[in-house]
Design a protein that fits this description.
Oligomer: single chain
CATH architecture of one domain: Distorted Sandwich
CATH class of one domain: Mainly Beta
Helix content: 25-40%
Structural class: alpha+beta
Number of helices: 29
Distance between the termini: 56 Å
Largest sheet: 8 strands, antiparallel
CATH topology of one domain: Beta-galactosidase, Chain A, domain 5
Strand order of the largest sheet: 14-15-16-17-29-25-24-20
Length: 990
């Protein structure tokens, strides 16, 4: 018996008809001649796509730093959080940029993070990237909406914070006949910038990704980069990795298994037992054999390629990137079982399942974060190309791939990425050529060579071009079967022997953004044992500085410098001096800051970052020629930093050297064509990303360009509200701070007044510049309730939660009647003050101000549960607002539970069978539990749920995120609880 037998006539039915295939437009008439001549072309043209719109983001800031997300913190603030997807699609005309050459077509969607949505092999008619013919987001992304298909470019953490936000684009035509579509965005968290260029070459089937990631901030930052390729799968789709891959690892290397035959239980699936019943069922390189959501990342390959192959279609793709920077190779699947198929339904209307074949740069696992120094730019490329009728690649380069079948006979099949007339294929046994062939090759047609009766013999195969240059070669690989290391949970601080290990453990937790373990206990234990340890004091100073605790940070950095310089005035690492300069500058001690930056500049690691900070300070003080001398000393020895030419152009213009400034900008834009500050200085029109405009204004202010910066702040304030939030209020407060610092007191007061009048919806300030501006506003006018409210939000985000609560209470005392304010104050009253009565009163007032806000009512009910209200009391409070309750999935499930608990099982059953649900990734199971409880309460047989419930039963129990003692597992990768209500230790909260 299934759910079909018990469905009432009133049940909502999902649409089963798939959407029409996305129609790619023909190249414009003016570009066809170039295409016919063998060049690559690109153009912008909207494409209509069936689309399910995400709902409006919540107006409440979400403090989810303890949410487990992809193994690291699910912190989403200051991005607005979206929790709803519409059930009814409509056709949207999506901005699209199209790239085409003789062999492939690519479609890029700038409004969705600049992702590749289509990768199509014109020669075989095969979509080598998964073509999702509908835009159907599910609640998978860091901030909510996420779509499957194509290629998603994830940075600075997984499922990119800006994955559902727009990017700016520019088309560049190369002199070599190539074309590149550049996409530019600012990380909405740390405000780093990234440019990724999607490039087609003339006469080549390669899709090249050219990336520039730039830490445009003054602080060292962590990041990762994973290109997330989707491939349409079925029983005959195979993911292939290099032949030296003997093991694969789960997230954080918490578990291993052999590859391609799994030799042990993995994700609680006993693959050896399955293979004993059905030979081949342990082959986890085939989608068909994986019944549960599963990740695996390769361990320790020395090769540069991997990919996927569709045996039914006789086509596939290769990814290639230099292993020295791109070691990461991963597969993810929802699993070939009803549970995974239900997720497929959430993400497409008929295009079926997919796997993700991800390629990591500067990372080989998730989470696995690398560092970017202040001002540092990293540049790298990744390559994909389709392969026709070769089978999985056993060796690959950007020029060619080869599959080598080894049975009684040896057969090698080659595919090339560009035409190769007179190519030579050879098979060698030792130094002896045993087979040789010359052939004209094209990307669409493979070429083969064979050796009969080859069993037991050792061969090398190779493909060379007509000049003799090797394009690809293969020979047998011998690799040790020694099992790689597996990660373990760090011991408690008091169980660790050395101060060094305490420091490094805390550093790991900080670098990897661990969601449930803080570095502070480790560093605090280290300082108990050695109060002067330079490494730990520097780490503590950095953490306190980032929270705006400048005086405390200075105490620690002074202790670090004292230890470092006790016997050596010139330590090997000057990070403490650099950090001292940042702290002193924030405290207004300009002379001390400049001295510290000067000292930090003696160390090559910190010379570039210290140099730009020193040059900015000098320029701000009007010492323009001194600023130029500092920049001159950096340009020939320090790595490229787009901030330097921007500052140089500003200073040159002040000195009347206009032509020289223009030349600097031209040269810089040849390198960084979409850098926002460079474009502004060059007179280009910037886009309507308010956060980017604020960043440009901050760059100008730090160079002493007061009027220009104020103009940019005002421009940012005028940008309509969008998915990245509302910068209006903070833009005016920043303008006021800049004006106040320049001595324009009256204008600063006017700017603060404008900030108070701005719409505060989705206004979630973040960062030290905003913190300083708000603190300055309150110092100038202690009765500024809006500044108190906003500063409280910022403080709560950076774990200054008792101070946040005080600011929110002060804003309430000053008469600010805002439901967001009262909700925030209620949250702090419960979590920080431990005062249930005040928390309840604050939420009641918030609900009074916004009675129709379902999110607010849901949180109030969650608070009711935590303060001990009975199910009957909660149900009675919600009954009059049932229609509002049922607008949210999580609220509806909670309400169903209350109905069942109070004996209203039929009502609960009716709700579950009359609306559609959309699960969060990692939150699966709650709707199933409610379904089973409703069936049991109404005396019905336990059956599978209807499709409208949005999920299906899991065939295997996944590893538990929460242990039996109630503590979140150290290696948990996903946990649905939002953890908004999480009563914490109210002592230290740095």
């Amino acid at each position: 018996m299934t759910a079909e037998d018990v469905r009432p006539e009133t049940e909502l039915e999902l649409e089963t008809a798939g959407p029409e295939k996305i129609s790619l437009p023909d190249a414009p008439e003016d570009l066809r001649a170039e295409l016919d001549a063998g060049r690559a072309i690109a153009w912008s043209e909207p494409v209509p796509i069936r689309t399910y719109e995400p709902g409006k983001p919540s107006q409440y800031p979400m403090y989810l730093d303890k949410r487990v997300y992809q193994g690291s913190s699910g912190k989403v603030y200051p991005i607005p959080f979206t929790e709803k997807i519409e059930d009814t699609p409509k056709t949207n005309a999506w901005e699209a940029v199209h790239l085409e050459n003789a062999f492939v077509r690519v479609m890029v969607l700038p409004e969705l993070g600049g992702r590749i949505h289509i990768g199509y092999d014109k020669t075989t008619g095969y979509d080598f990237f998964y073509r999702n013919n509908v835009i159907k987001p599910a609640l998978v992304g860091l901030a909510g909406p996420w779509i499957s298909g194509g290629v998603e470019f994830n940075w600075p953490q997984h499922h990119r914070p800006a994955t559902y936000l727009p990017v700016e684009t520019s088309i560049e035509n190369g002199e070599d006949g190539s074309v590149t579509v550049w996409c530019y965005d600012h990380d909405p968290f740390a405000r780093m910038s990234a440019q990724h260029g999607i490039r087609l070459h003339a006469d080549s089937s390669i899709v090249e990704l050219v990336v520039r990631v730039h830490n445009r901030t003054s602080e060292r930052q962590t990041f990762l980069w994973w290109s997330n390729v989707a491939a349409r799968v079925h029983d005959d789709y195979q993911s292939f990795f290099p032949e030296d891959v003997r093991y694969v690892a789960d997230h954080a290397r918490r578990a291993l298994t052999a590859f391609p035959e799994a030799d042990r239980p993995y994700y609680n699936v006993d693959y050896p037992a399955l293979a004993a019943e059905q030979p081949g069922a342990d082959r986890i390189d085939y989608y068909r054999n994986i019944p549960v959501p599963t990740s695996y990342m390769i361990v320790d390959s020395q090769e540069d390629f991997f990919g996927g192959y569709d045996h039914a279609a006789g086509a596939g793709f290769v990814h290639w990137a230099e292993r020295r920077v791109s070691p990461g190779k991963k597969q993810w699947t929802w699993g070939n079982a009803p549970f995974g198929h239900a997720w497929d339904d959430q993400l497409t209307d008929g295009d079926g399942p997919y796997v993700e074949l991800m390629a990591g740069v500067y990372t080989d696992n998730q989470p696995d974060f690398a560092w970017l120094l202040p001002g540092e730019t990293k540049v790298f490329s990744q390559y994909w190309y389709p392969i026709p009728a070769t089978g999985p690649a056993h060796a690959a380069t950007p020029d060619a791939a080869v599959n080598v079948e080894r049975g009684d006979d040896l057969v090698a099949t080659f595919a090339v990425t560009s035409p190769r007339n007179g190519a030579r294929i050879r098979v060698l046994e030792g130094d002896v050529v045993v087979a040789d062939r010359v052939v004209d090759m094209r990307p669409s047609v493979p070429a083969t060579i064979g050796v009969p009766q080859a069993a037991g013999r050792s061969f090398m195969v190779e493909l060379r071009d007509e000049s003799g240059r090797e394009l690809v070669s293969w020979s047998p690989i011998e690799v040790s079967d020694e099992e790689p290391w597996v990660a373990d949970e760090p011991p408690a601080p008091d169980a660790i022997d050395s101060v060094e290990e305490l420091y490094l453990t805390g550093l790991h937790l900080s670098q990897y953004r661990h969601p449930t373990r803080s570095p502070l206990p480790y560093w605090e234990e280290a300082l108990l044992r050695d109060a002067g340890d330079a490494r730990v004091n520097t780490a503590m100073a950095d953490r306190l500085y980032r929270a705006g605790r400048y005086d405390e940070a200075r105490t620690h950095v002074e202790a670090a410098i004292a230890r470092l310089s006790r016997r050596n005035a010139n330590p090997t690492d000057a990070e403490a001096y650099y950090l001292s300069g940042l702290i002193e500058m924030r405290l207004g001690n300009v002379e001390a800051a400049e001295q510290a930056f000067g000292k930090a500049g003696w160390d090559g690691t910190w010379s570039a970052g210290a140099g730009i900070e020193l040059a900015r300070s000098l320029a701000r003080r009007g010492c323009n020629r001194a600023a130029l001398r500092v920049l001159d000393s950096l340009d020939s020895v320090a790595g490229y930093d787009a901030r330097r030419p921007a500052l140089r152009a500003i200073v040159l213009r002040r000195l009347g050297m206009i032509a020289e400034a223009d030349a600097v900008l031209r040269d810089a834009l040849d390198v960084d064509r979409l850098d926002a500050t460079l474009r502004y200085l060059a007179g280009s029109v910037l886009g309507d990303d308010a956060g980017m405009l604020v960043d440009v204004a901050l760059d100008l202010a730090k160079a002493g360009e007061t009027e220009s910066s104020v103009e940019m702040y005002r421009a940012a304030a005028l940008v309509p509200l969008g998915g990245s939030g509302n910068f209006g209020p903070i833009a005016y407060y920043l303008a006021a701070h800049t004006l106040e610092s320049a001595g324009f007191t009256t204008r600063a007061a006017e700017a603060r007044s404008a900030a108070q009048r701005e719409d505060r919806a989705w206004a979630f300030p973040a960062g030290l510049d905003a913190l300083d501006a708000l603190a300055s506003a309150i110092a100038a006018d202690p009765t500024d309730a809006v500044a108190h409210h906003l500063l409280g939000m910022l403080y709560y985000d950076c774990s200054r939660r008792r101070e946040a609560s005080a600011h929110w209470d002060r804003a309430i005392e000053l008469g600010l009647a805002d439901p967001v304010l009262y909700r925030n104050a209620g949250l702090a009253a419960y979590n920080v003050l431990g005062d249930d009565a005040v928390a309840w009163a604050r939420y009641n007032e918030a609900v009074r101000l916004a009675p129709g806000d379902a999110r607010l009512r849901y949180e109030q009910d969650q608070l009711a549960k935590r303060v001990g209200r009975s199910a009957g009391e909660r149900l009675a409070a919600l009954r009059p607002s049932e229609e509002l309750v049922l607008t949210r999935d999580d609220f509806a499930i909670e309400y169903v539970g209350l109905l069942i608990a109070e004996g209203f099982g039929e009502e609960a059953y009716a709700i579950l069978t009359s609306r559609s649900f959309h699960p969060w990734e990692g939150g699966e199971g709650q709707a199933i539990d409610a379904w089973d409880a409703a069936l049991e309460a109404t005396g019905r047989e336990i059956v599978d749920p209807p499709r409208t419930l949005g999920e299906a039963r899991a065939a295997y129990v996944p590893p538990a995120a929460v242990r039996e003692d109630g503590v979140t597992d150290y290696f948990a990768t996903s946990l649905p609880e939002l953890l908004l209500f999480d009563r914490e230790d109210t002592g230290k909260n740095a």
